[in-house]
Amino acid sequence: xxxxxxxxxxxxxxxxxxxxxxxxxxxxxxxxxxxxxxxxxxxxxxxxxxxxxxxxxxxxxxxxxxxxxxxxxxxxxxxxxxxxxxxxxxxxxxxxxxxxxxxxxxxxxxxxxxxxxxxxxxxxxxxxxxxxxxxxxxxxxxxxxxxxxxxxxxxxxxxxxxxxxxxxxxxxxxxxxxxxxxxxxxxxxxxxxxxxxxxxxxxxxxxxxxxxxxxxxxxxxxxxxxxxxxxxxxxxxxxxxxxxxxxxxxxxx
Length: 253
Fold this sequence. Notes:
Helices cover 56% and strands 2% of the residues. By secondary structure, the protein is mainly α.
């Protein structure tokens, strides 16, 4: 009888030990999963422990479509859009990247200038250069500029020739796009992780600025007004001042 009791006690003890072990293993798995989810959910994958940087693609312009193989995932603002295969050749892709980025930067400056001159009460962007056609004097925020058209054009041509010559002489493709140094006085490029984010923001805002300026041109052609004046009029009477009522944008109305 004593032997039977001891055998049953040992069996119960083994069963309890196995049960506790299984519960501990399950608890550890749940804890590990919870920690993993809390550490990665909603965050951008930026790096791994071996020092390699993982760059995620910006997205896909046409959901379900296959992105072109020649557009690398780490290209800033790459949404797989190249239906005409313009960037299939490596040299062409690099040239198009340069052209887009430079146009983006000029467009952002131009749109900011178009809005600023009108907000501050110095006319609108369309009337600003009329002095060159009428024989007047150029002004900068109300201050007369003591140079004629020929002088200003000469300074611009020389300035562009020097800057573009220096840029194109640089064999480092990355430096031609992001020279840094004096062109990064606030040190935005010092942190590599933040730098990638700024690259994406720059190209996104630049593309938006190019579309915005196209809108400014189309809007003035249709209404003869600057963006601020047109927006003010639309906000004061949305149903009577919009693209469908200007008499040009929608034919027949």
